[in-house]
Write a structure and sequence with these properties.
Layout: H1 2-21, H2 37-63, H3 70-90, H4 97-116, H5 122-131, E1 151-157, E2 160-166, H6 171-178
Antiparallel strand pairs: 1-2
Length: 179
């Protein structure tokens, strides 16, 4: 799995630097491991890549388990979204706002495919999650998708324009209909 390799490189940067300082040539990439601008840029780029792809890679790794259930799938998806939300609020590696917006768009697209746009199975994940007593006090019951933006409704009556937001789907009601 590539995430493990990236983490190994990130953790091994001091060892790579020591090898390069001792005169060993690492596939003509020595400048990436020597103190200075290229190393700093490499470390930042690697951290940004891990920040963007890490939650997905970790979530997909967990989903490979043999004992995964429908409620786990929704739980892991929530974990991915909440990790992104936390990372974006901190933004300690300076991700461009457009990149963060694109990641949210991709995440929401996958969420919609999993939960909202697949009528034969979408209630399965929500229903299993709601029925699991371990999640009975989960804050997600207030908002089914933590990264979603409220739906904006723009209406025009005559010459006046009005904007309003559409309330999110009620998760418990959706689970009840799924039962």
């Amino acid at each position: 799995m590539y995430i493990g390799k990236m983490l190994s490189i990130q953790c091994g940067l001091p060892a790579f630097a020591a090898l390069v300082e001792s005169g060993i040539n690492i596939m003509s990439l020595n400048a990436l491991f020597m103190p200075g601008g290229q190393r700093l840029l490499f470390e930042v780029a690697l951290s940004k890549l891990l920040q963007a792809t890490g939650p997905w890679a970790k979530g997909l790794h967990v989903l490979k388990a043999a004992d995964i259930t429908a409620d786990h799938i929704y739980y892991i998806f929530l974990g991915i979204m909440s990790q992104h939300e936390e990372d974006f609020q901190k933004n300690e590696f300076g991700l461009d706002w457009r990149t963060m917006e694109d990641i949210c768009h991709i995440t929401n697209s996958h969420f919609n495919k999993l939960v909202n746009e697949t009528p034969q199975s979408h209630d399965l994940y929500i229903t299993a999650f709601v029925c699991n007593p371990n999640y009975q006090n989960a804050p997600v019951y207030k908002e089914i998708n933590p990264l979603s933006m409220p739906t904006l409704i723009i209406s025009q009556i005559g010459s006046s324009v009005a904007c309003s937001t559409k309330p999110p789907k009620d998760m418990v009601e959706q689970a009840g209909l799924g039962l």
